[in-house]
Design a protein that fits this description.
Number of helices: 3
CATH class: Mainly Alpha
CATH architecture: Orthogonal Bundle
Number of domains: 1
Radius of gyration: 14 Å
Order of helices and strands: EHHEEH
Number of strands: 3
Distance between the termini: 38 Å
Length: 79
């Protein structure tokens, strides 16, 4: 069963699964799980399945956005 659409952060549960995060980020479920396994996205396992805290995801996205903006300001491009 496909996860229901996420309209805003308010629609998101406090802890979500990989398919929900994939939908939110526009990634595949495999990519989300690989990032979690590599420690590149904040996650934890419950019964063998990856779970993601809403607040940790928001902070992770914010840090990525800030890093991206800093690189643009420093280099004048998005490399």
């Amino acid at each position: 069963m496909a996860p229901r659409s996420i309209m805003s952060w308010d629609d998101l549960e406090l802890v979500v699964d990989s398919p929900r995060v994939a939908q939110l980020l526009g990634y595949t479920v495999d990519r989300v799980q690989r990032l979690a396994k590599e420690g590149k996205i904040p996650a934890f396992k419950v019964g063998g399945s990856w779970r993601f805290e809403k607040s940790a995801l928001q902070e992770w996205i914010k840090s990525k956005r800030n890093t991206y903006q800093e690189r643009i300001q420093k280099n004048g491009n998005i490399r």
